[in-house]
Amino acid sequence: MSDAQPSDDDRAARLAAQRKAWNDAHPTYYADYRDRNRDEIRRKNREYMREQAQREREEKERRQKGIDRAKAWAKEHPEERQQARERYKQKHPEAYKQAQRDYYYRNREAIAERRRAREAADPDKANEARHRAVDRAREAGRDSTWSPTPDQRATYRERENEARRMARRRAHAGLPESQLHRVHAAERRHNDAAAEAFFAQKRTGEDIARIRDQDEPTPPELVHALQERSENRRVVREILAVAEEYFADHEVELRARVAEVSRARFRGGMLPLDVYTEPRRHALEFASRGYLRASVASPTSSLTVFRWLTTERAQRGPDISL
Prior knowledge:
Elements: H1 8-25, H2 29-36, H3 38-76, H4 78-91, H5 93-106, H6 108-121, H7 123-139, H8 150-172, H9 185-200, H10 205-214, H11 220-249, H12 251-267, H13 277-288, H14 303-309, H15 311-316
């Protein structure tokens, strides 16, 4: 290229300089043009947006038709579809894995919702599938290598020991065993869905009439039993409040008395008293004086009284000195 022929960069620079010079000479040209043709500009913008929206709708419909055709073909040719997928998976393993991850993250909420619905519909089947997945992972050598830390192991052991101590104290006090049991998340969601469906359904007039016909006055013996339990609980609360205040004021004296009696029992060949619960038991006996229902606050009368008696032992742990 000779020096007489200007290059593209020189031509672009010359045009830019001419454009800047013209703009500097007519600073209000574009503003005046917009003011004169405001309605026409808005009309063209509306037409452009409508055309763009129409193009997007057509493109979306085209893609959906392609997806529907692919689904119909896959439904009619399941073996060929599986073979094509396997060929693509072997030829492009990384692209296949990335596509799987992208699909999961795009539809994570919908996938989780479908999984929760399946588990709620059939919790037993979901548990069996989970167990089979764990077994397959172990057979393939993908068993989890996670193990608890020493601090976690100590925490687990402490929880287990505390549960055993509570069971022994409950049995010693003559109280029934705990009736609580674990419920898996799938079963809990299934129960919640069933309860929601039961209480959300609309009752017809016949249903309401039938329910009202089933209503009967509460038997007097049940009313009396409820009043009896309510009065007993009120008395227990009052006695425990007095016992707590008395124990706080005379704790040193009560412990000294228990220690003296324990030494005397030990010299006589008997087991010493419990240094944690015995002082509180004396405070409970003092607080129960004067109550007609004093028996409702005995050490074996209720779980509330038992917990109050064993509060300090539960906080300090088992007494290994005895």
